[in-house]
């Protein structure tokens, strides 16, 4: 990946973690790198080994890898099974690749956490003092939707069922879409949202009692 850039005195590192903001950060970094015609790198850090990632994490990593190839990113880096702090790993990667600018998402950190644990941004500034940081805010509506109303996402599939689609959790040859199902908290039935990739975009449909609530949404997203 990555063609020779005309400007090598600048290089950009995008740091992503699991959630709907990752793609947004990557595209922001790509736009900056395109304007500057400089190298672009993507980094994600996880304390677990890759083979222990759950379905949701794996889905995000696969999408980031696809996006990295689509955008001709110079290198997509996964630092799994990492026992050091994220800040230490980011600093190491920044030094190795001569990074001059880092794009990172705003952490959802409460004031109490900031007082007791310290600001993650301040830790990064101490670890990497000679780099410019670009902090992209996370839309609270997205965060609340995933963390406040739904259970942890699990890998699932949409299977054609008459004029609609049914969500299933076992891969079969009838599966039309692969994605992540987020079940509503406090329900005994499969009600929630199904997130999936369609035409290189992250899409979602509402699920009610195992079925896509509005099948026309699928047809619209295919266009």
Distance from N terminus to C terminus (CA atoms, Å) equals 29 Å
What is the level-2 CATH architecture name of the largest domain? 3-Layer(aba) Sandwich
Spatial arrangement of strands, main beta sheet? 7-6-8-9-10-11
CATH topology of the largest domain: Rossmann fold
Q: Determine and state the CATH class of the largest domain.
A: Alpha Beta
Q: Tell me, rounded to a whole number, the average pLDDT.
A: 82
Q: Name the helicity range.
A: 25-40%
Fourth CATH level, the homologous superfamily of the largest domain: HUPs
Order of SSEs, N→C? EHEHEHEHHEHEEEEEEH
Count of helical segments? 7
Poorly predicted ranges = 108-116
Secondary-structure class = alpha/beta
Largest sheet, described in full? Answer: 6 strands, antiparallel
Which geometry do the CA atoms define? elongated
- Count of beta strands: 11
Describe this structure in words.
With 223 residues, this protein is an alpha/beta fold. It folds into two domains: 12-139, Rossmann fold (3-Layer(aba) Sandwich), CATH 3.40.50.620; 148-222, no CATH class. 33% of the residues lie in helices and 29% in strands. It has seven helices and eleven strands. The chain has helices at residues 22-36, 55-70, 86-96, 111-117, 120-127, 140-149, 216-222, and strands at 12-15, 40-45, 75-79, 101-105, 132-136, 154-161, 164-168, 175-183, 192-198, 201-208, 211-212. A six-stranded antiparallel sheet has the order 7-6-8-9-10-11, sandwiched between helices. α3 (86-96) runs parallel beside α5 (120-127). The longest helix is centred in the N-terminal third of the chain and has 16 residues, at 55-70. The two termini are 29 Å apart. The model is unreliable at 108-116 (pLDDT under 50).
């Amino acid at each position: 990946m990555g063609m020779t850039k005309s400007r090598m005195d600048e290089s950009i590192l995008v740091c992503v973690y699991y959630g709907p903001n990752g793609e947004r950060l990557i595209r922001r970094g790509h736009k900056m790198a395109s304007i500057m015609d400089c190298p672009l790198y993507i980094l994600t850090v996880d304390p677990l080994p890759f083979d222990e990632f759950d379905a949701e994490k794996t889905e995000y990593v696969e999408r980031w890898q696809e996006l990295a190839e689509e955008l001709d990113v110079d290198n997509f880096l996964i630092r799994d099974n990492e026992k050091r702090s994220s800040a230490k790993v980011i600093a190491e990667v920044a030094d190795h690749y001569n990074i001059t600018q880092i794009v990172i998402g705003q952490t959802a950190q409460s004031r109490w956490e900031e007082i007791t644990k310290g600001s993650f941004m301040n830790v990064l500034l101490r670890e990497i003092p000679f780099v410019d940081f670009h902090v992209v805010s996370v839309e609270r509506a997205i965060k609340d939707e995933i963390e406040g109303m739904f259970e942890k996402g699990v890998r699932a599939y949409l299977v054609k069922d008459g004029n609609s689609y049914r969500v299933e959790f076992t891969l079969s040859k009838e599966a039309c879409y692969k994605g992540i199902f987020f079940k509503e908290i406090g329900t005994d039935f499969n009600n929630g949202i199904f997130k999936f990739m369609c035409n290189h975009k992250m899409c979602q449909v509402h699920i009610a009692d195992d079925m896509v609530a509005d099948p026309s949404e699928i047809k619209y997203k295919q266009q």
